[in-house]
Predict the 3D structure of the following.
Amino acid sequence: DAKTTQPPSMDCAEGRAANLPCNHSTISGNEYVYWYRQIHSQGPQYIIHGLKNNETNEMASLIITEDRKSSTLILPHATLRDTAVYYCIVRPQTGANNLFFGTGTRLTVIP
Amino acid sequence: DAGITQSPRHKVTETGTPVTLRCHQTENHRYMYWYRQDPGHGLRLIHYSYGVKDTDKGEVSDGYSVSRSKTEDFLLTLESATSSQTSVYFCAISETGVGANVLTFGAGSRLTVL
């Protein structure tokens, strides 16, 4: 599976957009980019995923560069409840039946 | 989390004793997974199941066994618990193992082995 690189921690002011970067320079053409988050003491929660195109849902937007070597998760209006560890993961469309979680980015939303 | 329940949520046991953690789902999903989470390691896959009686190993399967006798239940057993198995264990489910495979996680089971 392709490896991902994320900054260990980030801060964001409440109400501002949080932009979380992820580098996946060895990603293959058939691998999806997934984002999950884990709020303290809870199980991880799915946020969004994409293959080539940018994606948006009620939680966030995912921007994938044209060469697919990096992506950015955008939380448009961060709230205190968005404080969590955010995981960027890549995995192939077929074959592997699991997600390899790294150590993620700890996002702290500041009042 | 809705549709997926782990039990027990907390357990303290002694080295050498057997321990079984249960994951129960009401979503009728085909795939079920057991992960462990330790500081500095993120989540690591222990075992997963792709159907009743169909299971496979993950990256940290030594010392663990699993069973799935019906769709809704996936059991994780530590035959003889060791202190290195002190961890938080998460169960997850997914509808499919191919394509856009979204996992839904349970709330976790915290196990302490003394």
